Prior knowledge:
Largest sheet: 8 strands, parallel, barrel
Radius of gyration: 20 Å
Structural class: alpha/beta
Strand content: 5-15%
Number of strands: 10
Amino acid sequence: MEYRINPNNGDKLSALGFGCMRFTRGLNLKVDVAKAEPLVLSAIEGGVNYFDTAYIYFGSEEALGEILHRNDVRDKIFLATKLPYQQCKGYEDFGRLFQTQLERLKTTYFDYYLIHNISDLSAWDVLRGLGIERWIEEQKAEGRIRQIGFSFHGPQNSFFDLLDAYPWDFCQIQYNYLNEHYQAGRAGLQRAGEKGIPVVVMEPLLGGKLAAGLPKKAARLFRDADSGRSPAAWALRWLWDQPEVTVVLSGMNAAPQLEDNLLAAGSAAPGVVTEAEAAVYAAVKSVYQETDKLPCTGCNYCMPCPNQVNIPGCFAAYNTSYAAGYGAGIQQYITGTGANRPDKGHTGRKCVKCGACEERCPQRIGIMAALETVTRRMEPPGFGAVMSLVSKFT
């Protein structure tokens, strides 16, 4: 296992982290602890020491807490979980939710604690108005939170704003070779690195689509370049090659996945990707781009949108819905636009057709018409009602 040092406190973090959102579940949707437990313990034995969960990952905190407590391994790992900020309507809610998480995870402190899925500065400003900065200071002073951060799925310009809005200890972004320039993107990763903020990467395999769900042509490109390296290992290697990446989370729910990821993590040093390998990644991305319905490069020249539409995020999710499946696209659309927020976040439906974006687009995309197309596909009938319901529980 390769490790990377958190410059803020000297923590030696495993390059491979365990994302606990995708624990195996039974027919009753409850986490199957009997299946999750050996994976967690094998991961720790293999050198993984960063475990990530969240309040809204139904049953995940309870399951992980039970496993860590029963096997007396809590102190062998760095434990991360997330505050569902949309459930916070007053100062007292911070403590109420936090205490529930401590009880679920059977611990007295969190090594890494995140504000879950902040997509723009306005959301942070609401929390500041509720007193979250004072609350964070109190928890850190009492040793209940060691490092504070945020997870992000919004527009790139909003990520820059958030980085500067508070002295964060770390952050978490969605990032992979297919989404190199969407959301925070490579530019956001590098900006965080310049500020000395460790970056945890989620969705390195795009929900598994970059592992088992590759187009046959793309899989063949990887296989021809190195038959002994899995598509998942290729995806992880691309991330670990970048020195600004601190931890890469993988949602492992089967022993072969864990074994493959542990093997890949043994050569997770920055700068490992060769010129020949870089050419392979470029070729694989081209395969995906052949299915793109919109020629958006994620350059972000169209941003910021005066009405807060996440234009690159909408287009990326739309393209993903064709390249990697409708389910993956919908998931990316919801997280990338904040569609489950009461104010509808940054969805294409908020476009008022001012035309400012089209004047700046180097690809000369008819953005206003394209957003209508995206909205029809990504927000089917009943979508708004479902999102309104979801917003009450996230």
